[in-house]
Amino acid sequence: MVSTASSRAFIGLVTAALLFGFAAPLPAKEFLKGERPQTRGYSQAVITEGGKIVWLAGQLAIVDDSGKSLAGDLDGQVRQIFKLLNATLEKAGGKLSDMVQMTVFITDVRYGDRLTQLRREIFGDNFPGSALITVTALAVPEAKVEIQGYAVIGSK
């Protein structure tokens, strides 16, 4: 059993190392890519070390920033969701490119190809890991897509 004094001493040493710059630099984020995953807009794995993990709740978007309805507009919903996720990550000190994993729920399997195209536009060639799940409905009837995930901020 570790004593409270030992725990405090360890925390003190770590804090001092961080404050005085003795911490090792974070390695770059590494994307493990494969032919099929790259074609479908996801990475097989994203390797990070260090950084702050941010768990992102499922996000829907049925209206845009001006309040205009996005019902029936898959592209609009996806773009708005990623805009909202980016805003959440900015509040946490990060950005959308810090996402390392996402789970995407769609209400029609035929949306998969278009979603892949949109992810390619948004993420370029460095995609988060991803799962795509078709469901019969989402919490809001007008929603066609919901995205949740997590990001690692501070791991380049």
Radius of gyration, in Å, reads 19 Å
- How widely separated are the two ends? 36 Å
By DSSP (H or I, 4+ residues per run), the number of helices equals 4
Work out the oligomeric state of the chains in this entry: single chain
Class derived from helix and strand content: alpha+beta
Give the CA-based shape: globular
Top CATH class? Alpha Beta
Rounded mean pLDDT score: 82
Tally of individual domains: 1
Tell me about the biggest sheet?
A: 4 strands, mixed
Helix share, percent:
25-40%
Tell me what the CATH architecture is.
2-Layer Sandwich
What does this structure look like?
The protein is built from 4 helices and 6 strands. With about 160 residues, it is an alpha+beta fold. It has one domain (about 25-155): 60s Ribosomal Protein L30, Chain: A (2-Layer Sandwich), CATH 3.30.1330. A 4-stranded mixed beta sheet has the order 3-6-4-5, with helices on one face. A two-stranded antiparallel sheet has the order 1-2. Helix 4 (about 110-125) links the parallel strand 4 and strand 5. Helix 3 (about 75-90) packs across helix 4 (about 110-125). The model is unreliable at about 1-5 and about 10-25 (pLDDT under 50).
Features:
156 residues; single chain; disordered N terminus; two-stranded antiparallel sheet; globular; 60s Ribosomal Protein L30, Chain: A; alpha+beta
